[in-house]
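This section describes the prediction task in plain terms. A model, or a person checking by hand, is given the sequence of a single protein chain and must write out its three-dimensional structure as a string of tokens. No templates, partner chains or ligands are provided. The sample shown here is typical of the held-out split.
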Amino acid sequence: MYGALGGGGGVNVVVRLGGYARISLDKDGEELGVERQRRDYRQVAGVRPGWEVARDYTDNDVSAFKRNVVRPEFERLLADLESGVLDGVIAYDLDRLARQPRDLERLIDVFEDRPELVFCTITNDIDLSTSDGRTMARVMVAFANKASADTGRRVARKHRELADAGKNGGGFPPFGWKSDRVTIDPEQAALITKAHEALLAGTRLSTITAEWQKKGIQTSRNTGKPITRVALKGILRNPRLAGFRAVKGEKHIGADGKPVMGLWEPICTPARLDAVAAVLDGVKSRYQKNNLSNNHKYLLSGILRCSECSTRMMANMRSSWKEGSKGSRFTYRCPAAKDGGCGKVSRAGEPLDLHIINLIHDAEARLKAPASEPAEWAGAARLAEVEQEIGALVSAMNAKKISAATAIAMLEPLEKERDDLTYEHSRHAVEQMKVSAATVDLSEEFERLPIERQRAVVLKHIKAIMVQPAGRGARKFNPDLLDVVWAA
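The expected answer:
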């Protein structure tokens, strides 16, 4: 493509090229594939008079076929070509640059605006500055796009067959299992179990994420970056934890209409997984319904009530408090009239918290009492019947015993009933497991728990605390002005 230099083809003219390398999948993250591409196109550029690879643009482990994928380095390359920073582009092959026609058209637009630009690939010699070259490029990208689509269909079919058989797919091993994807990794499994228990006990996902980040825990991809909240959520609610075969993070349903079980060791029970998923998906608990969500920073916010107007009291930092002073750093106050309260009752925060914590310590014997058997959910039998009816309909439709139209008409009300029952089952499981998970050794653990866990323990014992006015000039904390409403 030396001829694309136009009038500036002398050997003394420096042509600054952007070298582009891309590979769709790099399991190990070692960049061996893109390094080979860089080496090859730099070798070709080195034998062309005046050519210089001014900058490498590398999209490693990035697809050019998937429409929703943004390639950062490809975007930067286009911007640099448009701005005149570069005099052209060199790549290993055209399909490294584009596998979607719309991406190619964006590149062609640049070359139409700047026909003096150089375009070179190692495997083909296409001149995007000419009409024939652009036509050939469009044909080549169209075939590359079709090849990717065909491959995608074959891979999808293969994965469907593997999923139907309960077998593992490819990619990185899921968090919690060793590289064979069958044997449990004890350390990772312990982390998952502890996180499940913390969630059910009231700990926020953001708190657990911060703990994992502090420990340097990463996903199976080992990207070197701290684990994110989204990634952790996916790990903790992965259906395969309970032995289910998952596709795109959801249980895979077989031809019989039932979830397919995988051929590996499970880490938790289906009931535990359903409860965790319900918490992560925001199933309303009694705390949320009573506006007692765990988004509070103080132990008794929303649990305290003003005895004058029954409004929930919230905590506020004291602006006058100074480091080293003996006063309380914060106070619990009834909101002012404009915020729905009366504003007549307030109480120093630290002594009130300490008093309630001592009351909870005194109730430790109740916590340590033998655990009662979890209450059975009343809808279990009906849910099993509905799932069996759905499975029978799906099997009949697949066997061509009934038409798809008939099956859908019969399935819709059953599926709605199943979804409603599943939701109620999840709520029941969450409440049962939260009661169990909130039990801790208060004498040793309470002060070290995150605030949301502490609030869960308090709410297990106490429904509300009515706070009476202390009177003018009262400074000393008086527990007799508190009316504790204990849980049954």
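For orientation: Residues 1-11, 283-291 have pLDDT under 50 and may be disordered.
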